[in-house]
Amino acid sequence: MKNINIIKTFVLLFALSLFTVSCDEGGDQDPGGTSVQAIAGDWWAVALNPDGLSSAFGGDFVQFSTYNTAANDNTFWVDDHDNWMQLKSKCTVNLSDLTFSSEPNTPELYADETVTITNGRITRGTYTTTSGTVVDQIFFDCEFSWDPGTVYKYEGHWRTGFLEDENPHWSAP
Fold first, then answer.
1. Which residue has the higher pLDDT, 11 or 107?
2. Which residues fall within 8 angstroms of residue 145, CB to CB, at 6 or more apart?
3. Cα separations (Å) of 39 from 34, 86, 112?
4. What count of Cα atoms within 13 Å lies in the side-chain half-sphere of residue 139?
5. What CATH number belongs to 41-163?
6. Long-range contacts of range 161-167, CB-CB < 8 Å, 24 or more positions apart?
7. Would you list the domain boundaries of the chain?
């Protein structure tokens, strides 16, 4: 019985030492951010026809994300998570004036097509959500290789995460 208690004590001490070692914080405690952290996040955006007055193909707001590329060099992804217009493409941002665009005929990864994104801009604090929260807006134009010559206009706003702001619906102005 005494040997069993000694073995249990050693096992307990060994387990505690593993937890102590695994909690060692070591390394850089402030890894910093990415080059596009000022614009990275989730958005609600709608694709509009070229007139900017009617939704493309009867669509509604879908959740988009903007996030850095692995290069961390002022390039970022515009990604609708394959929800609507199948848009996942790289853009380059000018952080001083919050404008962005892509190279002509940039690969679009969901539809295995190309897209050209132009006139991209983010405006700070220019939209008020249903909850009354003032957030940023995003605008950009897209011409897809599957519909050459048609430039769709995207507009949207920052996602707050508040329940009353989730799943907004677009209505014509």
1. 107
2. 105, 108, 113, 114, 115
3. 10, 21, 26
4. 9
5. 2.40.128.220
6. 162/129, 162/131, 162/133, 164/129, 164/130, 164/131, 165/44, 165/129, 165/130, 165/131, 165/133, 167/61
7. 41-163
Ranges 21-35, 114-128, 131-145: which has the least confidence: 21-35
**In this structure, how many other beta carbons lie within 10 angstroms of the beta carbon of residue 59?**
17
Q: Is residue 169 within 8 Å of residue 59, measured between CB atoms?
A: no
Per-residue pLDDT tens digits for 45-78: 999 999 999 999 988 999 999 999 999 899 999 9
Residue 11 has pLDDT above 90, yes or no: no
**Predicted pLDDT at 33:** 82
